[in-house]
């Protein structure tokens, strides 16, 4: 036993230390880009980082951060959920419809989260029990949920006028520059990050993403973890739907369509690789903040908004290309180190 | 020499696989049943005008589905096709506004499509990036460039003879003119995929990239050429789209990638690569197209049509897999190796 254990114990801290450093570098890199961009904008336009300006930046990022954190949990397990935009749309309308009928705002949020979790359960069951590629299944449920949404809503829409003022205020106000919504999103972010980092079941998400087969053989309940990731993702999309309603007060049958691509961009820019098993939700939150900030920065430095989409896309490409090059470097270093230890042992 | 014998052994093996062949046939049969039922029971389905609408509206998907099938068989995917089509339409409109003759514009657009495909292909093959992530990036980037090129304008005043080609049909039939180049491309793609060493290499790469490389397939070059072909056909589709709907806008063909992927997967092309036939893909494309047409004729709302598309997609991937799993499970029970599995599963859990 000890002879087989020894090399493993030696190898793990070295590789983890290196990997950790790279991941931290990754988050630092996004943060640096973000800070540089905001600073440059501030120098150009001194009204940009006013109290209201900061508040708007945070408010804009909130909803994307929530959905992207959920998506990250799924992507870490080497799956993907393309239906988040549709789930956001339908839960936002459900919450609005409930409030319109005089419901309790807190219950409306719970309802949205539960509905989102339900759709997540559906996705998770199809992926984990049916063992069909997640991309195809969630592309299907993207259509199905959007269709149900459209049939249910028809040409109706929810406007801010029919919602309770307390709910709308919650979506706009905050503690000076810190919106309530951002506080909520930050709480969720910290909770998810803590879970993924410190809980055994959280670590199993990563194990599963690195190698589903190995994780299964090591006793990780693969299907249950995948199911949990999808339920969490759906629930967070539902929460984001309710917050979307509070923030914008306006929901129709097109709400959230096409959002999945923005979410996936935020996740990938944030350093969670599509191949699973790597990245952190803090990186994802920074990625989401970066993407939404670009949308505010460009107009305020006088760049036409037609550039936004192209820049988003190119940023995504640069992010994954840089990731890949870094990963190749790390693999090269690890290989060299392994070769050195091997030759040292033989020598 | 080895290349000429390879297709035969491979075909024998794929015939033994069975389930895939059956799914192709299922989709084809479904399409046939749908067409027969629609001709006999749905008013206005069979008239020439409706059939030309059906084909005209399905052609963009049918065009891109051809190279997409080859690409998915080789284990990659391209989600930027809709944006490439949009970009080519936008550039077409912008150049036309700038006063260039259309005879130079169209080749430029097609060349642009090749460049778009080249960018995707180089990022995937040279840097080893997952095609899904790359093409989600270029999906946004190409659409963004289209927006920069054309802004919110729409260009409609293309020469009449080209507009006629885009929307007209061959005299006395229901077949649109544009179906002719599609048919040519279909034959080309079918021959390449099912009757040449290139096609066999695509299947080999999709089944196991490493094995294919060791057996002498130039994997990177093959994949790159498939991305280029997809970009080219996407740009062609963009030109057709602008002429067919007589409008070049930056948001032309938005979301087309999902329709194409849905149709191709419905046609039994395995997303993991290495499996599928072009006939299945074409049947999938026209099954979705005909279904949407029929549902519109019998007044099913557009929203319900979306649901049907989604359900079909889920069922099309879930059905064959569940069937396979059931048969595997049955076989396992029959051989009575079941006791080994729980023992292996519980041992590590107990050890920790």
Automatic annotation (TrEMBL), chain A:
Keyword presence, Magnesium: no
Bilayer-spanning residue ranges: 28-45, 57-76, 106-129, 177-196, 227-246, 258-274, 281-301, 307-327
Alphabetical UniProt keywords: Cell inner membrane, Cell membrane, Membrane, Transmembrane, Transmembrane helix, Transport
Membrane disposition: Multi-pass membrane protein
Major location category of this protein: membrane
Annotated compartments: Cell membrane
This protein's record includes keyword Transmembrane: yes
Record text on subunit structure and interactions: The complex is composed of two ATP-binding proteins (LsrA), two transmembrane proteins (LsrC and LsrD) and a solute-binding protein (LsrB).
Its job: Part of the ABC transporter complex LsrABCD involved in autoinducer 2 (AI-2) import. Probably responsible for the translocation of the substrate across the membrane.
Protein's name according to its UniProt entry: Autoinducer 2 import system permease protein LsrC
Automatic annotation (TrEMBL), chain B:
Source organism: Streptacidiphilus cavernicola
InterPro entries in the record: ABC_transp_permease (IPR001851)
Signal peptide: none
Keyword Protein biosynthesis tagged: no
Lipid bilayer topology: Multi-pass membrane protein
Keyword Membrane included in the entry's annotation: yes
Protein origin, superkingdom: Bacteria
Keywords: Cell inner membrane, Cell membrane, Membrane, Transmembrane, Transmembrane helix, Transport
Subcellular location: Cell membrane
Protein name: Autoinducer 2 import system permease protein LsrD
Pfam families documented for this protein: BPD_transp_2 (PF02653)
Transmembrane region(s): 21-42, 48-72, 105-125, 132-150, 170-193, 224-247, 304-323
